[in-house]
Amino acid sequence: MRLLTCLLPLLLCCSAVAEPRTIQLFMPDAPPLALQGEDGHGITGDAAIKALQRAGYRVAVQNMPWPRAQKRTQELRDALIVPLSRTTEREGLYTWVVNIQPLYRAFFTLDDPVASLEEARQRYRLVAVGLGSAQEEILRRAGFTRDQLYALKLGDRPIQLVRRGRVDAWFTTDLEGRHQWDDGPALAMSALLAPQDMYIACSLRCDPQLVQSVHDALEGMRVDGSLQRIIERYVPNR
């Protein structure tokens, strides 16, 4: 009995050590790439959750506006974020864990579609774009002025802004634009532009073991086809 009493604290300690570690995963509401729902968390959300689980971690999903999600990830240690495009401006702000897939952008408009960023810069007076997004960075680098950019606010419906003439075009990922394409008056989509890799990223202060294990898990999902099945679940048939 005395032996059991002595061993009990040790057993409890070992049990606590064996408990899976919980990792915070930050994401915005940007379907089909990331979303908050009972049936899934979008392409990058589901991919990141599955990779973390395969790597032996628990996941605490944190849905919030994109600028705040980025700020919180940068402030914390060992927090993950999706979907993050790897841009020059962001390179030194995060630990880049693993590339999910390339991601293209496009302009959605009622007019004839443009074929380049330069053509769009010359033609469009006002373009809707997500605040703090890679799309905003791309347009600024392409020479769009501050007055040409309409920063989308929470609750804005960009396709309706285009149809009502409040903006000339919406610049977003082709997946998000096609996902929100409804049955109203047809919109024109430009050529696919500005491809960038879409990553699972981590805080700059990130445990190397966490980085390696999630990287390996995602690459395993790519090999066994489970990543492709996640993508096919959300990509609209248009």
Structural commentary:
The chain is built from 9 helices and 9 strands. The chain has 238 residues and is α/β, with parallel strands linked by helices. It has 2 domains: 19-102 and 197-234, D-Maltodextrin-Binding Protein, domain 2; 104-195, Periplasmic binding protein-like II (D-Maltodextrin-Binding Protein, domain 2), CATH 3.40.190. Strands 1, 2, 3, 4, 5, 6, 7, 8 and 9 form a 9-stranded mixed beta sheet that branches. Helix 2 (42-54) packs antiparallel against helix 9 (226-234). It is globular. 37% of the residues are buried. The mean pLDDT is 90.
Structural features:
238 residues; alpha/beta; globular; D-Maltodextrin-Binding Protein, domain 2
CATH-level-2 architecture of the largest domain: 3-Layer(aba) Sandwich
Overall number of structural domains: 2
Give the distance, in angstroms, between the N- and C-terminal Cα atoms.
70 Å
Q: Quick one: CATH superfamily of the largest domain? A: Periplasmic binding protein-like II
What's the mean pLDDT score?
Answer: 90
The helix/strand class is alpha/beta
By DSSP, the count of extended strands is 9
Radius of gyration, CA atoms, in whole angstroms: 21 Å
Please summarize the sheet with the most strands: 9 strands, mixed
Overall CATH class of the largest domain: Alpha Beta
Protein name: Polar amino acid transport system substrate-binding protein
Organism: Pseudomonas straminea
Keywords: Signal
